[in-house]
Design goal:
407 residues, alpha/beta, six-stranded mixed beta sheet, elongated, disordered C terminus
Amino acid sequence: MAGYDRLILRFGEYTIKGKNRNRFEKRMTEHVRNALASYPELEIQRAYGRIYVHLHGQPHAAVIERVRDIFGIVSISPARAVPPELAQIQEASLEIIRGYDDKERTFKAAVRRAWKGFPHPSQEMNHLIGGHVLGHNPQLKVDVHNPDIELRVEVQQECALIYSEIIRTAGGFPYGTNGKAMLLLSGGIDSPVAGWHAMRRGLELEAVHFYSYPFTSEQARDKVIALTGRLSRFAGGRLKLHLVPFTELQTAFAGMRQDPLVITLMRRAMLRITERLAEQQGALAIVTGDSLGQVASQTLGSMNVIGRAASLPLLRPLVMMDKQEIVEKAEQIGTYPISILPYEDCCTLFVPKSPSTNPNLRVVEKVESFVDGYEHMLGEAVAATECMVLEPDQAAALADPAEEDWF
């Protein structure tokens, strides 16, 4: 639609948090500035509960794409700003309506007079704006309850804002305002979605992936790098990934001849290693993609025994979600096409025929005590961990499902 010269970015639930509000709004403004760094022409103005982006001729649709994934923003509206004078508001309202086609539609004008010095009260303005628009657009019919187009006007002392579109976005808390956690990132569908939910609650994340070369391929490793790159879009454009070599530990567990417990042993070792990485990185929790009852290691009994290996809180955003809900969210956030690429992680490759769904903690701890050099191998895995920082363009470069190299 023609004529837009600014965006209205509305804040989310954190605006009710009293003394923390100013800190959250400052962080939110930083995220918006970082996302729009490639548009130096833009002017970013912070207001109470909002951010205004002055477009200065830049296309509003392109700018919206840069900011719509920023957590803490609940909605975005492209708007036209004019002096707070009736004639100019009426003309700008017509310009907004011209952006729609000539099909018959229902219409409503909704005016809010924030500046009480404006001579026309809100109800009078509804008639003055609505009547003017209807007089120039005979295809429109009034519907004050459920209109196809709701033309909104906000009259402020500095200007009047006119808009008709409200684009709903992710909401939540600004990224990084509620502490840091480590995300156990496999190559599957669930863990990236768990990471998205955790970031939406204001957690700064660092991803941890376990690989077992040569049992897992370089393509499987690149797949996880691509997932991290995709998730970095929601983390302010950069997300750290820790790649942990797991072959020695996995081979040791397989040699214990305790096949039903192999997955339990592996996941407990992963938590122990992740906890040590968390201590190095200053993280205070571990996020997993567990969904109750989905697989053998995610029964309540298994999660209890596995979780005892860590002293940090285990956050499981998906624990009460079913698979279809998780898949739909993965499609929405853009991780699904990468997750379904045909390269398996170390856990998938080593699943026994009959994994234990209710392991006994004392038995598991006893088996671990017989693993020769267990603590040394945990330390070696931490020491050999490779760290990299990923950005969104690396997702596009590495994980285009249309590329023949993936298949």
